[in-house]
Structures are given as structure tokens and as C-alpha cells.
């Protein structure tokens, strides 16, 4: 028999370059464990259904376990001539246990096999990613708890807008990451069905028991249409979409960390372990990690686009094009895992420069809205109040004063409604703590959300 399992109808050997060009072994070998896991479950089912003998299944399973041990010990030669992980393992099995190994592929095709392997593999990776998402949430929450009294400038258009608690800002990312985790958990739900049993595309003539295989492999059920089973890569697309959104969030946090660690902001310090120096400028400590994560967001977006474009217009059922699904998927998994892991640690160790944040929060007339709200409470329509405070701010700019520094007489030039109690409303604390409704930045509102987050994490 020829080395290639499919060589029967061929008279000429494959062109060497074609062999290399069509092979996926260099990247799909990372799925070896899942390929073997799926094959073991399949062999058990074949024996249970008396499609092969029990003793044959035992031999096959023993052989597969031996191959698994060999691969893990680094004693396995992956061959490009055997194209992919599925044929590499099968060929080795036959080499190891003889012709009976050739019975493993009964009632199965590489098309339903690869669909199964990718789902098993991604399922495990997703669980790991969910763990990292959880660690990052913990780090963000920890920073919020540790810095409850810290006030920073809140921005719109990157212009000072209103003071907010730094904890509130951290909790904003907590919410984003929580939704990211929800999206990943969602991928897991739709991914967890077994495609094996679809055969090449139409099903199989053998009396298989798909539910039995599903149960052994921890799937919640089986796919319902054989054509769809071997064609569907939605689960990979859902994952890559969720990953793109998640990286978008990390890129926003990255951007802020980079700005905040600049000498001009000086709001935070990333610990030395997460920074690098310059080969020429001795003073430099560069925020490489957030910069790289910001950069890596681009490739994760690119992977999503590759995969969407790959699948666009493909006729049913399997097409070799689909072998190209793996590199973008694997790269996305690696990038997301690395970024999350490093962020969870970096955020946990980040040092907060509370005083600098406070000084910046007081600049830029950040309590102007509080004066407007004060005037509104005295019965003046908001639009007029806006105008009054606008003029007050202009006066401050022209006279180089800050709002809390104005005398009552100066305030009264703009509105007679302003009384001596105005000074109680224009401090940073007063401004922050006035925003008490759910989701606001008041300390009591933020403490409520921290408690809520803590409670939901206990569950
Ligand atoms: N390496 C292939 C892939 O990843 C496995 C399925 C191949 N099936 C086939 N009929 N050529 O898509």
C-alpha cells in the first residue's frame, strides 16, 4: 500500500511542491490531542455498534494512546507527505498496529473529523480564555476597590469634562470585559454539538450511534444536518468576532494606559516588569505591553476578516478552502490568550498617582456643569443656566481664575440666583458624589456596583 491513504485512484505521485502547498500539518498538528480523543470515542462507538470487533477497538485505542504518548514525548515525526494531523495519526496507527488500524476510518471522513477536532480544540481554549477574562475582571475590580477615594478627570473628546472616580473608570472596563466573557460563553453554547457522523457530506451507510460519541466527548448533542455539519464554521467566526470586540476593548484601555503613563499625564505607573527601555535614551521606560496589545488588535480584526472572506460564497459542503480557517483561528486564540494574561497581571500591579489625577481633575472647569445644575435648581431653565455658566467660564479664562476661586459678587454678575452655598457644590468631591443614581460616579453608587460585582463573582 502507498503511504497516502487516498492514493488508490492515482497513477502518478504528488508533485513535491503540491504536497507542501496543500499540507496543513505544520499548523494543524496542535490539534493532535483532540484528533486522538475523537478517534478513541469513534472506535468505542464502532465496537458498541458491532461495526468492528471489540478486540479490534481495543487494539486501535491502545495504538492511539501510544501515539499520544509518543507525540507528548516528542517522539513523533510529522510528515508533510501525509498532509494533515488526521492522516499523520492514522498512518502511524496502521504502522504501529497493522491493517486493523485501517478500520478506524470506517463511517467517518476527514471532513466530519476536522470539524469535530476544531470544536474540541476551541472548546478547551475557550475555557482557558474565560479563565483569563475572569482574572482581568478581578484585577480591574481590585484596582477599583483599592482606589475608591481617587478622583480623576473624566473626558469627552479627550477634553476635561467632569470629575469621576478612578474606580468608576476601572469599573467601566469591568463591564466591557464582563460582556466579552458573556460573548465567549455564548460561543461555547453553540459550538458544543458533535458534527462527527456526517461523513464526507451525506451521512454514512453504517449503523452508527452519534449520541453515544457526543456523550463521550462531552458534547451537549449532535448536529442535525450532515451538509451543514461539515460546512459550518460559524462557531469559529463567532469566536473571532467576540475576540475582535474584546481586543477592541483592550486597545482602548491600552491607549489610556499609554497616555496616562506619559510624563504629561503622569496618572499611573506600570511596573518595570511590564515596560522596556530604549537603546539610546537612558531615561526611557516605554509602555511596550499596552502598545503591542493595541497593535495586535489589528491582526485579530484581520483574522476575522480573513475568515469571513474565506467562507463567503463557498458552496456546500466541504471545500479545501476551509483548511485556511485554522491559521486565523489559531492566531486569534494565541493573541487573545497572551494579551489577556499579560493585562490581568499588569493591571493588578499598576500604580496609581492619585495626587496627579486630582490636580488634573480640578483643571479645565470640570465643575461647570455642577454650577449649571445649581442654577437650574433655583428655577432657571437649563438652557439659560448653560449660557450663564458659559459666560462665567469665559470670565474665569479672561481673569485667569478657577470656578471655586470666584467671589460671590463675581458669581452674582452672571446670576442673582447664585448664593453663598454655591461653594458646597463646586468641589471635586461634591461634584462626584452628587451623581448618585445607578451607574453614576458618586462614591456610594460606585460602592454599590463594587458590591454587586463581588456578589456576582461569588456565584
Ligand atoms: N486538513 C483538512 C482541513 O483542515 C482536513 C479535511 C480534508 N478533507 C478533504 N476532503 N481534503 O480542512
Number of spatially distinct domains: 3
Biggest β-sheet: strands ordered side by side in the sheet = 1-2
* Head-to-tail CA distance between termini: 58 Å
Bound molecules: arginine
Overall strand count: 6
Overall form: elongated
Describe the protein's architecture and organization.
By secondary structure, the chain is mostly helical. It has three domains: 7-106, Fumarase C, Chain B, domain 1; 111-208 and 218-359, Fumarase C, Chain A, domain 2; 364-458, Fumarase/aspartase (C-terminal domain) (Ribonucleotide Reductase Protein R1, domain 1). It is 60% helix and 5% strand. The protein has 18 helices and six strands. The protein has helices spanning 16-22, 25-28, 32-48, 54-72, 85-97, 110-146, 166-191, 210-216, 226-231, 234-260, 288-311, 326-349, 354-362, 368-377, 382-399, 408-412, 428-433, 443-458, and strands spanning 151-156, 159-165, 193-194, 221-222, 268-269, 351-352. A two-stranded antiparallel sheet has the order 1-2. It has a two-stranded parallel sheet with strand order 3-4. The chain has a two-stranded antiparallel sheet with strand order 5-6. β1 and β2 (159-165) form a beta hairpin. α10 (234-260) runs antiparallel to α11. The protein starts with 15 loop residues before the first helix and ends with a helix. The structure holds arginine (ARG). Arginine (ARG) is lined by residues 24, 28, 84, 86, 110-111, 114, 318, 320, 322-323. InterPro entries: Arg_succ_lyase_C, Argininosuccinate_lyase, Fumarase/histidase_N, Fumarate_lyase_CS, Fumarate_lyase_fam, Fumarate_lyase_N, L-Aspartase-like.
Amino acid at each position: 500500500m502507498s503511504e497516502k491513504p487516498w492514493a488508490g485512484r492515482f497513477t502518478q505521485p504528488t508533485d513535491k511542491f503540491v504536497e507542501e502547498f496543500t499540507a496543513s500539518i505544520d499548523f494543524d498538528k496542535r490539534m493532535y490531542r483532540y484528533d486522538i480523543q475523537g478517534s478513541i470515542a469513534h472506535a468505542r462507538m464502532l465496537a458498541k455498534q458491532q461495526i468492528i470487533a471489540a478486540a479490534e477497538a481495543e487494539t486501535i485505542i491502545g495504538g492511539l494512546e501510544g501515539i499520544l504518548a509518543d507525540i507528548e514525548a516528542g517522539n513523533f515525526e510529522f510528515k508533510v507527505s501525509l498532509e494533515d494531523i488526521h492522516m499523520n495519526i492514522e498512518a502511524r496507527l496502521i504502522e504501529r498496529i497493522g491493517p486493523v488500524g485501517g478500520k478506524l476510518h470506517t463511517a467517518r471522513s476527514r471532513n466530519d473529523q476536522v470539524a469535530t477536532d476544531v470544536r474540541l480544540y476551541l472548546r478547551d481554549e475557550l475555557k482557558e480564555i474565560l479563565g483569563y477574562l475572569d482574572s482581568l475582571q478581578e484585577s480591574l475590580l481590585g484596582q477599583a476597590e483599592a482606589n475608591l477615594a481617587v478622583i480623576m478627570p473624566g473626558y469627552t473628546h479627550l477634553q476635561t469634562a467632569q470629575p469621576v472616580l478612578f474606580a468608576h473608570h476601572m469599573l467601566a472596563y469591568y463591564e466591557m470585559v464582563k460582556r466579552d466573557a458573556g460573548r465567549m460563553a455564548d460561543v461555547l453554547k453553540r459550538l458544543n454539538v458533535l458534527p462527527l457522523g456526517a461523513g464526507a457530506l451525506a451521512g454514512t451507510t453504517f449503523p452508527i450511534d452519534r449520541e453515544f460519541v457526543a456523550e463521550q466527548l462531552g458534547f451537549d448533542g449532535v448536529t442535525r444536518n450532515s451538509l451543514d455539519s461539515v460546512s459550518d464554521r460559524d462557531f469559529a467566526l463567532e469566536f473571532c468576532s467576540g475576540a475582535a470586540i474584546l481586543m477592541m476593548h483592550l486597545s482602548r484601555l491600552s491607549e489610556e494606559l499609554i497616555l496616562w503613563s506619559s510624563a504629561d499625564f503622569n496618572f499611573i505607573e506600570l511596573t518595570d516588569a511590564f515596560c522596556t527601555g530604549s537603546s539610546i535614551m537612558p531615561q526611557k521606560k516605554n509602555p511596550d505591553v499596552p502598545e503591542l496589545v493595541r497593535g495586535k488588535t489589528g491582526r485579530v480584526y484581520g483574522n476575522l476578516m480573513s475568515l469571513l472572506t474565506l467562507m463567503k460564497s463557498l458552496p456546500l459542503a466541504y471545500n479545501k478552502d476551509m483548511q485556511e480557517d485554522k491559521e486565523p483561528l489559531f492566531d486569534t486564540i494565541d493573541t487573545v490568550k497572551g494579551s489577556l494574561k499579560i493585562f490581568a497581571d499588569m493591571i493588578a500591579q499598576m500604580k496609581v498617582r492619585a495626587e496627579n489625577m486630582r490636580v488634573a481633575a480640578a483643571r479645565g472647569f470640570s465643575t461647570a456643569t455642577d454650577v449649571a445644575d445649581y442654577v437650574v435648581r433655583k428655577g432657571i431653565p437649563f438652557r439659560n443656566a448653560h449660557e450663564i455658566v458659559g459666560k462665567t467660564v469665559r470670565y474665569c479664562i479672561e481673569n485667569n481664575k478657577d470656578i471655586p476661586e470666584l467671589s460671590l459678587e463675581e458669581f452674582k454678575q452672571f446670576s442673582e440666583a447664585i448664593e453663598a452655598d454655591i461653594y458646597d457644590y463646586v468641589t471635586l468631591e461634591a461634584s462626584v458624589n452628587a451623581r448618585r443614581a445607578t451607574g453614576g460616579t458618586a462614591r456610594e453608587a460606585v460602592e454599590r456596583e463594587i458590591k454587586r460585582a463581588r456578589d456576582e463573582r461569588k456565584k
